Amino acid sequence: MEAKNIAQRYLNTTANFADKALFSAKSGTAWRNYTGREVREIVEAASYGLTVLGLESGTNVGILSANCPHWAFSDYAIACSANTSVTIYSTLIPSQIQYILEHSESRAVFAQDREQTEKVIQIKDQCPDLEWVICLDSGVTFDQDYILSFEDLLSKGRAYAGGGGAYNFEERANSVKPEDILTLIYTSGTTGPPKGVMLTHSNLMSNIIAGLQVLHVDQTDVFLSFLPLSHSFERMAGHLLATSIGARIAYAESTETVLADMKQVNPTVMCSVPRLYEKMYAGVQAKFAAGSPMKQKIAHWAIKTGSRYRSKQKKGNVGGLLAFKNSLADKLVFSKVKALLGTQFRFFVSGDAPLAADIGTFFDAVGVKILEGYGLTETSPVITVNKIEDYRFGTVGPPLPGVEVKIAEDGEILTRGPHVMRGYFKDEAATREAINEDGWFYTGDIGIIDDGYLRITDRKKNLIVTAGGKNIAPAGLEN
């Protein structure tokens, strides 16, 4: 069955990879795997459970949790029930959670554990639409009648399914239209309250399909997930895209254990942000500096050799002597750096903030690919990304297939295509301001297109207009 929505794409994956591990998480000292068959059964039971609670199609349901398999189970249960997920960062304080739940009119929320559930308890009376809280940690109990555990939800769902209820899981999943809202993601409100970005099934489907044409990944890949799933970057690339191809997703214990988790999980692909590379770079440089003068000299020679090798490799004219030198550099230096990432690592996809060109160049010399991309929550999120076969540091790559990008007269980056959001929830004025009548979305970023590759130069709000009417982006001058 050709998938027309995220729910169908999930059903296809769990059917095609029934015996394969799709999700992994640390349980004590070992990693617990969930096969496609297990995942399908859990999500189906949870979906039936939501129906027992009276949450019919079109209902907004929150997810307040850090990354874990149960986040994924909740997300797919909501999608397959033809409902809309409202993602909430687990780091938010009760008043911020209240705003999102109240504004989104969410009738239920999945909460990770006791800490997150107690946040919701504090603000429930201020959220008139909120009826149910489902605690993903079934090991804790609460006195409130409106709180039930995830296992309780599954039990209700299994009982309903066994009793021959009118709701059919696959029929409901297949009933979802491409233009239906899959998720509401609230942007950080730097100049006002957060805005709820409405992303449809077709928005995310378009980004997944286009992304797979550029990022060569398949069911043999292993993703390590540590960026918040509440953010659109990890949600699309490290969650929806990864699941849709039958890849395995392992969840890091925390942001502090990423490097240790990498050695245990042996991932092939990761979505990350520049901060991780900066920490790795600083650690490697510190080790270089702590070595003897001879070791420092060898490290310097190796990086210089690796840079020359990668440059020649892109042009297809690597000589035998340079190849030998790079092989020696790999044995003496690069292999030790790459060992930090496991034994089968292929590449990072970097986003959310600019990657310093010198850091990208360093890891490239070592043989670690970092593909920088660009996008916003409102664009599902990827607009551009560098290609594995042709990546250019200092750029965020060319547009994804099917995505249009142009530069306005004042230098602002505009984009149009199936990836652009439906709009802001309950805010038509802000929607009209962000998307013009021709469908172009105003990113608020300033950039240039260089040989088809986009360079971000500044934020529009930072532009200085001279007395002569010239727009100047100060970031370049400041740098």
Word description of this protein:
The structure is a single chain. The protein has an eight-stranded mixed β-sheet with strand order 2-1-11-10-12-13-14-15, sandwiched between helices. The protein has an eight-stranded mixed β-sheet with strand order 7-6-5-3-4-8-9-18, with helices on both faces. A hairpin with a 4-residue loop joins strand 16 and strand 17. The chain starts with 5 loop residues before the first helix and ends with a helix. The protein is 41% helix and 22% strand. It has helices at 6-16, 36-52, 69-80, 94-104, 114-123, 150-162, 169-175, 201-214, 232-244, 258-265, 274-290, 293-315, 320-338, 357-366, 428-434, 474-478, and strands at 21-27, 30-35, 60-64, 84-88, 108-111, 132-135, 147-149, 181-186, 196-200, 222-225, 248-251, 269-272, 347-350, 369-375, 382-385, 404-407, 412-416, 423-424, 441-450, 453-459, 464-465, 471-472. The chain is globular, with a radius of gyration of 24 Å. It contains 16 helices and 22 strands. It has 479 residues and is an alpha/beta fold.
The low-confidence runs, each spanning 5 or more residues with pLDDT under 50, are 465-470
Q: CA-to-CA gap between the ends?
A: 52 Å
- Biggest pleated sheet: 8 strands, mixed
Gross morphology: globular
Task: Provide key terms for this protein.
alpha/beta; 22% strand; 8-stranded mixed β-sheet; 479 residues; 16 helices
Please provide a brief summary of the model.
This protein has 479 residues and is of the alpha/beta class. It has 16 helices and 22 strands.
